[in-house]
């Protein structure tokens, strides 16, 4: 804690307010304060009268997760209901300070983390805030399994999804219940080419959102894409989307569809249960095949 800030606390007569900064994955930033006037520092404006408050922060010196909750009001000038429903605040970065509103250079960083579960109730929302140690709860390292553990195009896969033939931009021609998209034609791509792939929204009210593709079929003269869950954010006819090829994580797919076998992250030759149960024998070869 800054010595000047500490000295201000020790006076017994303080001019303190709380400020929160939220940065979404799309780069949009928001500033909130429980002070009755708008405050400014670090190039961000912290708006007053936004209805945002926070509960006590539970912190520790170990590796347990610091957590708290923020309560706020939904309004068109701050956090909008449609943005919450679209998932735009999921996983957003959150920073919280205790600030001397008479001199904003005097402040103490109280919390830094991300938004976890976010619930909406009427015209209000409640957001769970998770500290930086939350990331330590995520599994890391290699997994000994036959299918590939990489995500198509990530640092382990290294495949360039921008290669010709593996993605296509199209305007939405027809959409049903935010779940099923139809095109009159989508030439150059085999049936099921986009299954297990991804649909990114490039324009419209749902711009920046994405969904996972469950099925890709041809029915007569129509190409039909089924998503795993309805697309949030109001995807509409005329919006531009990007379809990315899908990968089923098999070695054969990696070799034949993507020509990327050198970066395959699975273990296709993992022994079967029969090999684990193999026993010594006096004649023949112990090949690891069936014991019968």
From TrEMBL:
<dbReference type="InterPro" id="IPR011928">
    <property type="entry name" value="Phage_phiJL001_Gp84"/>
</dbReference>
<protein>
    <recommendedName>
        <fullName>Bacteriophage phiJL001 Gp84 C-terminal domain-containing protein</fullName>
    </recommendedName>
</protein>
<dbReference type="Pfam" id="PF09356">
    <property type="entry name" value="Phage_BR0599"/>
</dbReference>
<feature type="domain" description="Bacteriophage phiJL001 Gp84 C-terminal">
    <location>
        <begin position="193"/>
        <end position="274"/>
    </location>
</feature>
<dbReference type="InterPro" id="IPR018964">
    <property type="entry name" value="Phage_phiJL001_Gp84_C"/>
</dbReference>
<dbReference type="Pfam" id="PF09931">
    <property type="entry name" value="Phage_phiJL001_Gp84_N"/>
</dbReference>
């Amino acid at each position: 804690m800054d010595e000047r800030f500490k000295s201000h606390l020790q006076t017994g007569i303080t001019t303190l307010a709380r400020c929160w900064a939220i940065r979404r994955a799309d780069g949009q930033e928001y500033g909130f304060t429980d002070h009755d006037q708008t405050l400014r520092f670090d190039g961000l404006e912290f708006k007053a009268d936004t209805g945002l408050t926070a509960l006590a922060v539970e912190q520790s010196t170990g590796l347990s997760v610091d957590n708290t909750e923020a309560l706020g009001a939904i309004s068109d000038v701050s956090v909008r209901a449609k943005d919450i429903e679209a998932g735009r605040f999921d996983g957003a970065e959150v920073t919280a300070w205790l600030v001397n509103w008479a001199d904003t250079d005097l402040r103490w960083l109280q919390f830094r983390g991300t938004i976890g579960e976010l619930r909406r109730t009427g015209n209000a929302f409640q957001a769970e805030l998770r500290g930086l140690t939350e990331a330590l709860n995520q599994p890391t390292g290699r997994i000994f399994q036959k299918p590939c553990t990489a995500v198509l195009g990530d640092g382990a896969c290294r495949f360039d999804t921008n290669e010709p033939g593996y993605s296509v931009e199209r305007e939405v021609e027809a959409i049903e219940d935010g779940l099923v998209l139809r095109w009159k034609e989508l030439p150059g791509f085999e049936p099921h080419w986009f299954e297990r792939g991804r649909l990114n929204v490039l324009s419209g009210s749902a711009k920046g959102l994405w969904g996972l593709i469950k099925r890709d079929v041809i029915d007569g003269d129509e190409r039909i894409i089924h998503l795993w869950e309805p697309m949030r954010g109001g995807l509409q006819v005329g919006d531009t989307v990007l379809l990315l090829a899908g990968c089923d994580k098999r070695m054969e797919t990696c070799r034949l569809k993507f020509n990327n076998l050198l970066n395959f992250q699975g273990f296709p030759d993992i022994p079967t249960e029969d090999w684990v149960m193999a026993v010594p024998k006096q004649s023949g070869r112990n090949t690891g095949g069936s014991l019968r």
